[in-house]
């Protein structure tokens, strides 16, 4: 019997009621929460003769991600079309833009049914999504296992949460009004706190400065990857919370992927076929991370299904085969869960096959081993032109003079008409008594 559990067994030599051993037990529980994701034994359960075909736990069903951040393809495209529309501007403070949060529950609202995409927007939805993917990919230098500074290296869960929050924010807001580099740093800082792996905000700001210094000779991204100050991270952290409608919980496919890979290798090991579980997990993790940045799988499917599809791709499944999930996984499902109805297994296989087809159909990620140099160069040139276009639009939006409205009944004071000089000598008594008089400009001669 194989069970996936995220809690360590209690040692009989250390009883829970002993006051001397309580700090050790609490420390052990904190380590468990730190290195194992909260939904480790919830997203995908595998037991003897039993499988969660929905691949979604009860916790995920009740989560904000399942209720507000799962879309279908038409509603997701409509949401992105609306996000590129110009933001409302406060007349009194023209540089302050209104943060929008309509993406939360957009697929369930009536707005998604009656919304007509605008055709005269400043930026195309596909162009905005290209820049969002670019900055989401660059977040791995700030936080995660491959962070630039050793002090900022955290678990893969922190990086995945940061990318998910970053992409959620720009489903409602435009990158023309909110700097994506500042928002990326704020997402990294907030994700580390939400996953209980706090990092220093000063080190994060320093990491952005280091990245900016390294790309000074790269015209493609030196204007986008600018340094971010501590004040900007704090300011954009507030915008992030409002733009995501204060829904921060993110479920990821890693727990389902880990449980399936181990059980799959153990199942075939009993039959004399030995498969390296670490190799399968490494390849599946790479697929999950690329899908998180470059595809919409996490907005369209449950994390358990995505984890199963990642393992299938790591084992060699392709949509061109007659069996999309692969012969090995099909045999595994039929033999391992023979107690399930055939229709239930077919539905689960069809759901996973749709994810595999979606990942292979995504033009922004390449799951094949061959690399086309000309195609990569063409995409780099398209990104360069897009960055120039966005820079010119931002300059047009924010560099032009903004008229400040003045009330017609407001009178200008004498201090606005001419230069103010502080009173000297006997004039101090006049100002203390409230006498309104103009001060004669004083000429200081050497």
Could you outline the blueprint of secondary structure elements for this entry?
Layout: H1 22-35, E1 46-47, E2 50-51, H2 58-61, H3 64-68, H4 73-83, H5 111-114, H6 125-138, H7 156-169, H8 180-194, H9 201-214, H10 230-243, H11 254-269, H12 277-294, H13 297-300, H14 303-314, H15 327-336, H16 342-361, H17 373-398, H18 414-417, H19 427-432
Short description:
It contains 19 helices and 2 strands. The chain is an all-alpha fold.
List its traits.
single chain; 446 residues; mainly alpha; Cyclin A, domain 1; two-stranded antiparallel sheet; 50% helix; 1% strand; globular; disordered N terminus; Cyclin-like_sf; Cyclin/Ssn8; Cyclin H; cyclin-dependent protein serine/threonine kinase regulator activity
Could you walk me through the main structural features you see in this protein, from its secondary elements to its overall organization?
This protein is mainly alpha-helical and 446 residues long. It is built from 19 helices and 2 strands. It has a two-stranded antiparallel ribbon with strand order 1-2. Helix 11 packs across helix 14 (303-314) and helix 12 (277-294) packs across helix 14 (303-314). The model is unreliable at 1-58, 410-420 and 428-442 (pLDDT under 50). This is Cyclin H. GO terms for molecular function: cyclin-dependent protein serine/threonine kinase regulator activity. Residues 410-431 are annotated as: Disordered.
């Amino acid at each position: 019997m194989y069970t996936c559990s995220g809690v360590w067994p209690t040692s009989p030599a250390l009883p829970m009621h002993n006051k001397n051993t309580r700090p050790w037990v609490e420390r052990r529980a904190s380590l468990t929460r730190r290195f194992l994701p909260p939904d480790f034994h919830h997203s995908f359960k595998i037991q003897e003769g039993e499988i969660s075909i929905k691949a979604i736990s009860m916790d995920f069903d009740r989560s904000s991600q399942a209720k507000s951040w799962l879309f279908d393809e038409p509603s997701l495209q409509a949401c992105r079309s609306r996000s590129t529309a110009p933001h409302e501007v406060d007349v009194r403070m023209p540089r302050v833009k209104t943060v929008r949060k309509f993406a939360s529950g957009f697929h369930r609202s009536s707005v998604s049914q009656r919304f007509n995409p605008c055709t005269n927007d400043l930026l195309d939805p596909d162009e905005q999504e290209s820049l969002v993917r670019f900055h989401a990919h660059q977040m791995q230098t700030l936080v995660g296992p491959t962070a630039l500074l050793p002090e900022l290296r955290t678990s893969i869960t922190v990086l995945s949460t940061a990318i998910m929050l970053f992409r959620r924010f720009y489903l409602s807001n435009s990158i023309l009004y909110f700097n994506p580099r500042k928002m990326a740093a704020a997402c990294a800082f907030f994700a580390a706190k939400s996953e209980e792996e706090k990092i220093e905000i000063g080190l994060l700001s320093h990491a952005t400065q280091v990245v900016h210094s390294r790309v000074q000779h790269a015209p493609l991204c030196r204007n986008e990857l600018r340094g971010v100050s501590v004040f900007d991270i704090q300011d954009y952290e507030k915008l992030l919370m409002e733009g995501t409608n204060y829904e921060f919980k993110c479920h990821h496919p890693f727990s389902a992927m880990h449980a399936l890979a181990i059980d799959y290798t153990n199942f075939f090991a009993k039959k004399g076929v030995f498969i390296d579980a670490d190799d399968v997990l490494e390849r599946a993790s790479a697929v999950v991370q690329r899908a998180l940045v470059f595809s919409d799988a996490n907005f369209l499917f449950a994390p358990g299904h995505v984890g199963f599809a990642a393992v299938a791709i790591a084992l060699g499944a392709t949509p061109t085969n007659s069996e999309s999930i692969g012969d090995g996984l099909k045999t595994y499902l039929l033999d391992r869960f023979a107690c399930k109805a055939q229709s239930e297994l077919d539905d689960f296989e069809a759901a996973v096959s749709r994810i595999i087809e979606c990942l292979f159909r995504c033009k922004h990620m390449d799951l094949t081993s061959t690399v086309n140099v000309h195609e990569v160069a063409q995409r780099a040139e398209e990104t360069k032109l897009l960055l120039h276009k966005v820079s010119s639009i931002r300059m047009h939006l924010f560099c032009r003079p903004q008229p400040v409205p003045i009330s017609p009944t407001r009178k200008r004071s004498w201090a606005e008409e001419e230069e103010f000089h502080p009173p000297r000598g006997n004039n101090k008594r006049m100002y203390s008594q409230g006498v309104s008089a103009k001060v004669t400009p004083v000429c200081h001669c050497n």
